[in-house]
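Students often ask why inverse folding is considered easier than folding. One informal answer: many sequences map to the same fold, so there is more than one right answer. In these notes we will look at a single instance of the problem. The structure comes first.
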């Protein structure tokens, strides 16, 4: 460090330094002489210029997640239409916003003007918490207002202030306070989100809260002395820059280093020499208490390997620099130029020359959206948080494809499909070479475990759950993000698939469609390019809009509630007369010598286990572990999670088709991706949901046996034993799979073979088992273990399946729960028989073969059993009690009506509490009796589908003719996304509540997406849309017709009816730029989910 030549030179430099500094660190207290009248006049002037901002982040990006919020801003340039607010309000991402100008007078804030106009983001600072919106000044027609002048130089300790802002989006509030500090450290909000640094903050106990972010902090003259941020007041450099006449865009320079202001006492302990301290104190403003010290350096940045934590900054370009403002002014004026830093490191003076980097160059302004994931270069903000270099490939939101592989948010992608990934273009290049269904490795690291790479297997979407990958680029001149396709037209991901060839079900030929094996090379038809929907997170609850300044929107779509359980079943091949044959194994081809050796080794290894029981050895080759993922873009039918595990059992295995039975708490909806892992052979292949029973708790998943390769000869179907039914005291073997695909078994005894289920409806209606009798055991493996119940020879008598329920602790508190019970195998064997023999239902393409699938005739009435002793108290006659006891001397019960499904043929005929005594004059005592009566109707060629029920109602016997309903096993096959809400036909769990709106019930809102128009305006789930702009929408077709007429940016009037019957009318603004309307529909001809754009911006 050079010594000063003379006292004269020292005095001259001190004077010069003081003149250049624009704000004192701790100015002396100034007496506040303002009167109440002065404040009243100032507020009358200020309040009209304060605006309430309603912002919507349509996607996750950088430090922010998708969501909607309220905040505050204020007019700083009336002529140009510029509003100043916080950066975390403007957001670094795609922000749709409007401002509602509200005026009041005097100390009583009454809203006398409500004009809502659109605003567009024009600047957000990469580091500091300020940004600007722009609006059209001519759009304000009825309000007289003036811009608020900026006066950061007026801030001083003890200054009385007022914070004028939005109180949770409801009204303008005025909060009083006093400035207590001007040199507070920038607050640390989140370790993985936005944080301000390299600046001072003010501190005042003003009591602000969410919604007040961006509020002006004014003095008694009506001048803004600071900007409210994070419930703390901020005296940011940006305010000073504005006061000095700088215009947007701001040149911003950075060394990618974070500095802290530390007191001289601490700096001395860091090794600061006394002569250096004397120099700095003389050259600094009066009251200076410390210096700038390096806190952290971003890897591979300009300061990397030049500056170290603990370095004390003495001079910058020859000028003593102790304040953030002066340092940043010098850096901003030296972008792309070199600057000289004189520092002390442990008392040793050093001089380094660094090139100032353009701060905007390390702030991403584009991103890739693929399968709901948002991927972009790592920003300076997050690079500083995570200690990674800027520009590497960063996952802001994993979406579906990456979430399915287990890639978390904030991951850094290092390798994809075996190729190194250092830039986003590398990732796009690899992606463009992949086909639908391809499975490729991906390596990533995370900031929580930065020293180890993790490797996962990514499966490219087979179905068209999402639109093709696209690039979004920010355009600050328009305030929008421009979107364009990212893949070349010759990309396999966009190439058409091979049309399947129809085959006779009895034929043993193999389809021309290539089998989907682990590395699926068969491309499928892809829809044309269209704007992405960007569903990153979805909700079913009536969640309120977040208004906290730094809060993130939590999404339940990202929540992984994994079921870890096993389902075991046996497979037998049934003949049309319901007789059961021995299980058969059909070899697809003669494996070569090498394959035979592999099989012998594997079979020998499995046999070594072995103190296993006969039943366990017989069942193990039939067991399958299923991993199920549900896309967030189409979580239908109230499904409560995106990820499930469970064990299934092979019930059919031939050359052309394999079928696995599993409970519906593992495979809940057909809109899902299923992967099968076989206990008999180490291979993982995809499966397709082909049947969901509308009543019973089981689903059927098909797989292609040719995909098993050599394993097709060791995988086999289990033998089913539907008769005789299990009885109390019977001994059974409970067999299941562990997560490591190891069979586990134990002996148990049946304690109740006919326990009736009574599962209540969940807050968000989803499938629940009704009209079912299940089997209870004396001992099992707990509620997380599922499997099969077999006899001692390994013949399957029941599935030990998982059931979903919800435990409610209060009106607002509930918890998802699951339990396991035995499901008798008879219903599964009946459905299997119909599939094999050829049902009379709609055809479905399975492994390239069109097969007719069964229809199920049911009485859509929820029933529950009542003991005959109770029924006698209700007046049931002795003759009927004797007849029911004779029919079933074990159960001694009668079935009563709990309710009819809304829209069913039994509705308005049967009433709650009716006792069902007989069907077609035959007494009935259990649910199976009713099922058998319904199936008997299908055997009658001239039947009208009606049953004659004898019921007991209020002391009288009544004969009623009640119609039955026919349901398929497809589940919901059509879904529409409009303005970010997922609408569908009401599923059976909704209809089971017994209510459908008379105005129309075909457009049920199942989910809503964060950051969408429906999130912003409050059109949440669990309600029907019955009118749009006064036009009825009784079904999905009518809804599509009406919404296609609405243009981009139009306000829409929507009438809804909630599940509780409450009607509501609301308005929302359609946004086709970020939220185009699209439809997803299952095509049975190709067994593919196809996506079609309904309306989007051209």
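Output (designed amino acids):
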């Amino acid at each position: 460090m050079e010594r000063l030549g003379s006292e004269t030179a020292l005095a001259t430099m001190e004077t010069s330094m003081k003149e250049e500094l624009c704000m004192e660190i701790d100015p002396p207290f100034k007496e506040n002489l303002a009167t109440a009248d002065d404040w009243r006049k100032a507020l009358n002037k200020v309040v009209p210029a304060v605006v309430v901002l309603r912002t919507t982040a349509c996607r996750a990006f950088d430090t922010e997640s998708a969501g909607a919020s309220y905040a505050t801003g204020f007019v700083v340039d009336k002529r140009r239409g510029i509003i100043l607010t916080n950066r975390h309000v403007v957001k670094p991402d795609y922000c749709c916003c409007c401002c509602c100008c509200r005026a009041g007078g005097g100390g009583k804030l009454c809203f006398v003007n409500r004009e809502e106009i659109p605003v567009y983001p024009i600047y957000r600072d990469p580091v500091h918490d300020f940004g600007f919106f722009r609006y059209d000044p001519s759009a304000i027609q009825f309000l007289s207002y003036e811009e608020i002048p900026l006066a950061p130089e007026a801030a001083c300790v003890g200054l009385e202030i007022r914070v004028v802002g939005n109180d949770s989006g409801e009204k303008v509030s005025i909060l009083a306070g006093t400035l207590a500090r001007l040199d507070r450290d920038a607050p640390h909000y989140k370790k993985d989100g936005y944080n301000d640094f390299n600046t001072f903050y003010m501190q005042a106990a003003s009591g602000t809260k969410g919604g007040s972010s961006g509020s002006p902090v004014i003095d008694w003259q009506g001048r803004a002395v600071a900007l409210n941020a994070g419930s703390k007041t901020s005296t940011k450099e940006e305010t000073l820059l504005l006061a000095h006449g700088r215009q947007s865009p701001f040149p911003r320079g950075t060394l990618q280093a974070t500095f802290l202001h530390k007191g001289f006492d601490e700096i001395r302990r860091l090794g600061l020499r006394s002569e250096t301290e004397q120099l700095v104190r003389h050259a600094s403003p009066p009251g200076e208490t410390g210096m700038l010290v390096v806190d952290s350096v971003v890897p591979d940045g300009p300061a990397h390997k030049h500056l170290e934590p603990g370095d004390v900054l003495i001079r910058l370009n020859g000028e003593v620099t102790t304040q953030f403002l002066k340092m940043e002014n010098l850096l901003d004026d030296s972008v792309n130029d070199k600057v000289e830093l004189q520092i002390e490191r442990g008392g040793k003076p050093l001089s380094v020359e660094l090139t100032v980097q353009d701060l905007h160059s390390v702030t991403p302004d584009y991103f890739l959206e693929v399968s709901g994931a948002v991927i972009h270069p790592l920003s300076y903000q997050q690079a500083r948080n995570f200690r990674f270099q800027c520009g590497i490939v960063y996952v802001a939101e994993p979406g579906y494809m990456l979430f399915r592989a287990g890639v978390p948010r904030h991951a850094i992608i290092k390798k994809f499909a075996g190729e190194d990934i250092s830039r986003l273009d590398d990732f796009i290049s690899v992606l463009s070479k992949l086909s639908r269904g391809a499975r490729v490795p991906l390596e990533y690291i995370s900031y929580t475990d930065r020293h180890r790479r993790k490797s996962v297997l990514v499966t490219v979407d087979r179905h068209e759950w999402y639109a093709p990958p696209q690039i979004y680029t920010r355009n600050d001149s328009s305030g929008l993000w421009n979107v364009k396709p990212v893949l070349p037209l010759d990309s396999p991901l966009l190439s058409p698939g091979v049309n399947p060839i129809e085959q006779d079900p009895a034929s043993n030929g193999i389809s021309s469609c290539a089998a989907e094996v682990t590395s699926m090379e068969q491309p499928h038809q892809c829809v044309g390019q269209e704007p992405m929907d960007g569903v990153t997170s979805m909700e079913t609850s009536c969640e309120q809009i977040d208004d906290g300044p730094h809060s993130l929107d939590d999404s339940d779509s990202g929540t992984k509630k994994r079921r870890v359980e096993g389902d075991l079943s046996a497979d037998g091949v049934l003949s049309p007369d319901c007789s059961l044959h021995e299980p058969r194994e059909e070899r697809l081809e003669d494996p070569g010598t090498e394959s035979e050796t592999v099989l012998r080794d594997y079979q020998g290894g499995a046999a070594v286990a072995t103190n296993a029981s006969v039943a366990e050895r017989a069942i193990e080759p039939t067991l399958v572990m299923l991993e199920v993922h549900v896309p967030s873009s189409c979580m239908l039918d109230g499904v409560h999670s995106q990820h499930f595990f469970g064990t299934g059992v092979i019930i059919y295995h031939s050359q052309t088709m394999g079928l696995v039975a599993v409970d519906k708490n593992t495979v809940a909806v057909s809109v899902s991706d299923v992967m099968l892992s076989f206990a008999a052979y180490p291979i993982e292949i995809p499966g397709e949901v082909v049947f969901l029973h509308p009543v019973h708790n089981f689903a059927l998943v098909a797989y292609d046996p040719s995909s098993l390769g050599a394993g097709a000869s060791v995988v086999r179907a289990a033998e089913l034993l539907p008769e005789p039914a299990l009885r109390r005291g019977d001994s059974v073997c409970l067999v299941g799979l562990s997560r490591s695909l190891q069979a586990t078994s134990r002996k148990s005894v049946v304690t109740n073979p006919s326990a009736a289920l009574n599962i209540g409806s969940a807050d968000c209606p989803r499938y629940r088992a009704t009209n079912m009798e299940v089997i209870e055991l004396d001992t099992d493996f707990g509620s997380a273990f599922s499997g099969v119940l077999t006899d001692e020879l390994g013949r399957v008598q029941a599935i030990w399946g998982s059931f979903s329920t919800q435990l409610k602790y209060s009106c607002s508190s509930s918890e998802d729960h699951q339990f396991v019970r035995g499901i008798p195998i008879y219903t599964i064997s009946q459905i299997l028989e119909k599939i094999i023999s050829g049902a009379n239902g709609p055809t479905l393409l399975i492994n390239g073969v069109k097969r007719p699938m069964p229809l199920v005739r049911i009485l859509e009435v929820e029933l529950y059993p009542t003991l005959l002793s109770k029924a006698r108290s209700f007046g049931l006659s002795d003759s009927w009690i004797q007849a029911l006891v004779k029919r079933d001397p074990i159960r001694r019960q009668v079935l009563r009506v709990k309710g009819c499904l809304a829209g069913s043929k039994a509705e308005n005929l049967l009433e709650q509490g009716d006792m069902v005594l007989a069907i077609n004059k035959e007494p009935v005592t259990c649910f199976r009796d009713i099922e058998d009566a319904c199936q008997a109707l299908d055997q009658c060629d001239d039947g009208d589908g009606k049953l004659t029920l004898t019921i007991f109602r209020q002391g009288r016997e009544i004969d009623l003719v009640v119609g039955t309903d026919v349901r398929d096993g497809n589940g919901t096959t059509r879904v529409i996304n409009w303005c970010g809400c997922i609408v569908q036909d009401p599923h059976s769990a909704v209809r089971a509540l017994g209510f459908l709106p008379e105005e129309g019930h075909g457009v049920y809102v199942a989910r809503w997406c964060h950051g969408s128009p429906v999130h912003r305006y409050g059109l949440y789930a669990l309600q029907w849309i019955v009118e749009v702009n006064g036009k009825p929408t009784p079904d999905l077709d009518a809804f599509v017709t009406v919404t296609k007429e609405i243009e981009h940016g139009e306000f829409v009037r929507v009438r809804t009816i909630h599940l509780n019957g409450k009607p509501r009318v609301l308005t929302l603004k359609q946004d086709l730029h970020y939220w185009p309307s699209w439809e997803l529909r299952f095509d049975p001809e190709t067994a593919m989910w196809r996506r079609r754009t309904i309306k989007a911006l051209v």
